Amino acid sequence: MAQLTFSRLSHLLRTSLHKPPVVRAGTEIKHGPACCLQFIRCQRSVDSKTLQEKQKQHMARGLPKQKPITGVKQVIVVASGKGGVGKSTTAVNLALGLMANSPSQSVGLLDADIYGPSIPKLMNLKGNPALSDNNLMIPLINYGVPCMSMGFLVEDVAPIVWRGLMVMSAIEKLLRQVDWGSLDYLVVDMPPGTGDVQLSITQNIPIAGAVIVSTPQDIALLDARRGAEMFKKVNVPVLGLVQNMSVFQCPNCNHQTHIFGSDGARQLADTLGVQFLGDVPLHLNIREMSDRGKPVVVSSPDSAEAEAYRKVASAVVQRLQEVST
Predict the structure, then answer these.
(1) How far apart (Å, rounded) are the C-alpha atoms in residues 237 and 318?
(2) Which of 300, 213, 230 is nearest to 265 (CA)?
(3) CA 219 to mean position of chain CA atoms
(4) Helix, strand, coil shares of the chain as percentages rounded to 5?
(5) Alpha-carbon distance 95 to 188, whole Å?
(6) Whole-angstrom Cα distance, residue 286 to residue 297?
(7) Is 313 helix (H, G, I), strand (E, B) or coil?
(8) Residue 301 CB: number of other CB atoms within 10 A?
(9) Under a CB-based contact definition with an 8 Å cutoff, are residues 97 and 242 in contact?
């Protein structure tokens, strides 16, 4: 089988940039004088409800139609408004937790963070993906989870210096040109923030729901709220919030300290009217096993921290059932 290298992918992306860009919902439309005059006339002639419906239809013209990923039943995106809150670690252990709770179900993991891919390190994977006979990338597999990441196509320390169009093209290829086989769940580790990548993914594929990860700290909660509000605007169900690094327990005296605050994500969930999916403690074992590429759900399945991730996975499945009905 052929292998897809970074240089080859870069060439493919550059040659595809001459294609006209797709207009996406939510982008700002600049109105000229004629458009403004027409808008005013319509506003005078129809009631506000009809006007809003016409605006919605106008925005929908030329938008990409959502197309499911071949072989994938449900897509779960794991997001955060801010980096450094443990989103990627949560995404990995969520995927493994889904499998641990239901071994008969298949789960895949997609790393959508083009500039800072973490999945190769967390899942202890490296190497270029092979290409199938249909010229699709074949995911790398560890712990029974097929994974795809830009990190498989670049060296560990190589920066990805790409402008927006190339990043969007790379996302499109990660979504459409991967042979996932048959999956019950595809967990997508989103980049932090609320930018083009998030909009591109939510507009191109149907998403079953979004999981928002935050620490209890006020500054992290501000951005977590922005992330949740973004998904609501693009009509993606927010499954709930995960409070990561919720409490630190001293390994010597077992005294508990809320380093980043207490119950901030739980209170934010109540404010937003969404589900609180669970707490994950700030634990040395999570950090050590993640750095070794051995997530705690598989390396320490009997630990309290692994149980916390499995509870989050159970809550996510329950919310998916509620949303689908």
Answers:
(1) 13
(2) 213
(3) 21
(4) 40, 20, 40
(5) 9
(6) 9
(7) helix
(8) 12
(9) no
Q: Where are the alpha helices (DSSP H) in 111-216?
A: 119-122, 164-176, 196-204
* Contact present, 202 and 231 (Cβ < 8 Å): yes
Pairing of strands 256-257, 209-214: unpaired
Q: Tell whether the torsion through CA atoms of 131, 105, 198 and 141 is positive or negative.
A: negative
pTM of the model: 0.80
Q: Rounded to the nearest 10 degrees, how much is the dihedral formed by the CA atoms of 24, 27, 32, 33?
A: 120
Start-to-end CA distance of the chain, whole Å, equals 43
Tens of pLDDT along the chain (325 residues)? 566 666 666 666 666 555 554 444 444 444 555 665 565 565 555 566 676 676 566 555 555 678 999 999 999 999 997 788 999 999 999 999 999 999 999 999 999 998 889 999 999 999 999 999 999 999 999 999 999 999 998 877 777 777 778 888 888 889 899 999 999 999 999 988 877 888 889 989 999 999 999 999 988 989 899 999 999 999 999 999 999 998 898 888 888 888 888 888 899 999 999 999 999 999 999 999 999 999 999 999 999 999 999 999 999 999 999 998 8
Q: Rounded to whole angstroms, what are the CA distances from 255 to 166, 217, 251, 252, 258? A: 49, 20, 8, 8, 10
Phi-psi region of 292 (alpha: psi -120 to 50; beta: other; left: phi over 0): alpha
C-alpha closest to that of 177 among 143, 121, 130: 130
Give 320's DSSP letter: H
What Å distances lie between residue 176 and 23, 204, 241, 267, 276, CA to CA?
Answer: 19, 10, 28, 38, 32
**At residue 164, what is the residue type?**
G
Residue 102 CB burial class (10 angstroms; 0-12, 13-18, ≥19): middle
Three-state SS at 165? helix
**Token pair of 67 as six digits:** 């197309």
Distance CA 306, CA 204 (A): 33
